[in-house]
Prior knowledge:
The chain contains 4 helices and 7 strands, in the order E-E-H-E-E-E-H-E-H-E-H. It is α+β, with helices and mostly antiparallel strands. The chain has 2 domains: about 1-50, no CATH class; about 70-135, no CATH class. Strands 2-1-3 form a 3-stranded antiparallel beta sheet. It has a two-stranded antiparallel ribbon with strand order 4-5. The radius of gyration is 18 Å and the shape is globular.
Amino acid sequence: MIKYTLKCSQDHRFESWFQSSGAYDKLRGAGLVVCTQCGDTKVEKTIMAPRVQTARGKADVTPAPSQPDGPPPEVVEAITKMRDYVEKNSTDVGARFADEARAMYLGETPERMIHGQTAPEEAKALIEEGVPVVPLPFMPKRDVN
């Protein structure tokens, strides 16, 4: 996993974790890296201070340039309300999202609100086909048992 500090074209700064630098590049190329404050998809990595391991085994952390500690409370509240609305008013189809969205678009199944996950390549294909989809600015909740 790798954490990047990102900045959108509106100069909003935020952090996000990615499986690898290649995963970041693929998601960004598919338009799936979205500013947490304004929804802008024109997002770039910013300069970050690396975490370097010293000989004594302690991390030598160089402080990064002064940045906000995450999105403002009103943004967090808005995203929380959006998540609650999506979860209460749509069906979680999980990994079947692309197939379900495409079937509704083609008229093979009745239209309804759904949410789920799909690979960046599949999301890009849906968009190119004209299927109305939008990335959500949050990850799905997972049941912890």
